[in-house]
Amino acid sequence: MNSNFSELRLDRLTRRFGLANKAQGAQVFTALDGLTMNIRRGEFIALLGPSGCGKSTALNCIAGLLPVSDGGIWLDDTRIDILPPEKRGFGMVFQNYALFPHMSVAKNVGFGLAMRGVSSSETAQRVKRALDLVQLNAHADKLPGQLSGGQQQRVAIARAIVIEPPLVLMDEPLSNLDAKLRLEMRAEIRRIHKELGRATIYVTHDQDEALSLADRVVVMKDGVAQQIDAPHKIYSEPANLHVARFMGYRNLLPMAVRQTGNGTVRLEGSGLLLTGRAMQPLDGSALVAIRPEEFDIVAEPGDNSFPVRITNVEYCGHDNIVDVSTLAGMKLIVRTTARCQVGDNVLLHIAPGKVLAYPDDGSVSP
Ligand code: ATP
Q: Which residues form the ABC transporter domain (predicted)?
């Protein structure tokens, strides 16, 4: 496939599975439902969501490992969802590395080229270039078992990129590594991606990984893309309550909508009166989402501030996770670097732009 493509187009990509069910006969389950997006050359896309949301199904459909049930995949003007995986020629990196244990690092990396009939001298050159890129040339003659987990994953990346694919697909490549190595490899993957300039689609359930690596993040739930956006938008302007919940908006407060105007909204409930942002059209009631780290502890009362009593403090090193209760007994979670103790009465302030109001889905009781 053309490595110099300008756009990969996913058009209503859908995958259904037939499930045999003794009680009800055959049932159809939609694991991926109408994923539509364009991916530009050199772009890094993260598919993010909880287990079972359809991330791997989407990746496997793009790779050609799973046939699509509906919709199409286009690389510029070429329809590719009808092609077998080897004709698409995408590089794949899996969670479990999938290296051949009895082959040296160099042989593992060169395997795909040998299968494609590339001459041994060209293979040697390209393997060297790929191992240079992942900084493993000193280990070319070792067996995978003689390498650390992070090094094995770099071999898998070298093997995926040595074929010079138009697109690199990665399915949770860092989940078998410990926390420190995961951070190091995250930086490595970003560097390799930049140097290579290829489009990458990266599956993860880890928000930090998606936000730090990707140019755009696709947040998925039940097979449906909920939001496709730049990381800072996903983080600070979740499109709906599902994305807000998944991105760590742990405080969800049912409040009445008193007044709306120009994107701002006046909200009232449980003794609080707050100005916030309407994230979707609202009628009489809203579920308000606030991240624990967005509160400030202030000295003077003012707009969007209210008194609370501290009921629990969990020390986390850099900051504390603090449970508080409002005068009306509403419980909130606050992350703060301020020193505080159980029983303290403090004033909390929240900036109006950090109070996000969504239509109330009834999931939180007042
Ligand atoms: P994980 O991170 O756990 O791999 P995921 O988001 O990648 O999750 P998928 O593996 O894409 O999720 O699965 C999406 C849904 O499709 C799940 O409910 C899964 O059980 C279902 N599914 C996947 N493969 C099949 C299959 N071969 N037959 C039936 N259902 C399947």
A: 8-247
Nearest atom within ligand 1 for CA of residue 205: 2
CA of 99 to the centre of ligand 1 (A): 24
Question: How far apart (Å, rounded) are the C-alpha atoms in residues 227 and 243?
Answer: 8
Q: 10 Å Cβ neighbour count for 257?
A: 21
**Closest residue (by CA) to atom 26 of ligand 1?**
17
* Ligand 1 midpoint to CA 31 (Å): 6
Task: Locate the domains of the chain by residue range.
Answer: 7-242, 249-359
Which residue, judged by its Cα, is nearest atom 31 of ligand 1?
17
**Fold equal for 7-242 and 249-359:** no
The per-residue DSSP string of 15-70 comes to EEEEEEETTTEEEEEEEEEEEEEEEETT-EEEEE-STTSSHHHHHHHHHTSS--SE
pLDDT tens for 241-288 read 999 999 999 999 999 999 888 889 999 998 899 999 999 999 899 999
Kindly report which listed range (39-48, 175-184, 262-271, 309-318) carries the lowest average pLDDT score: 175-184
What pLDDT, in 10s, does the model give residues 100-135? Answer: 999 999 999 999 888 888 899 999 999 999 998 888
Judged on CB neighbours under 10 Å (0-12, 13-18, 19+), 134 is buried
At the topology level, CATH places domain 7-242 in Rossmann fold (3.40.50)
Residue 308 tokens read as 């609370």
Query: How far does residue 55's CA lie from ligand 1's centre (Å)?
Result: 8
How sure is the predictor about 25, in pLDDT bands with cuts at 50, 70 and 90? low
* CA 188 to chain CA centroid, nearest Å: 18
Closest C-alpha to ligand 1, atom 12? 52
Q: Which residues line ligand 1 at a C-beta cut-off of 6 Å?
A: 17, 19, 29, 31, 49, 51-57, 205
Q: Which fold would CATH assign to domain 249-359?
A: OB fold (Dihydrolipoamide Acetyltransferase, E2P) (2.40.50)
pLDDT tens column, 278-317: 999 998 999 999 999 999 999 999 999 999 999 999 988 8
pLDDT on residue 166: 87
Name which residue sits closest to atom 9 of ligand 1, judged by CA.
54
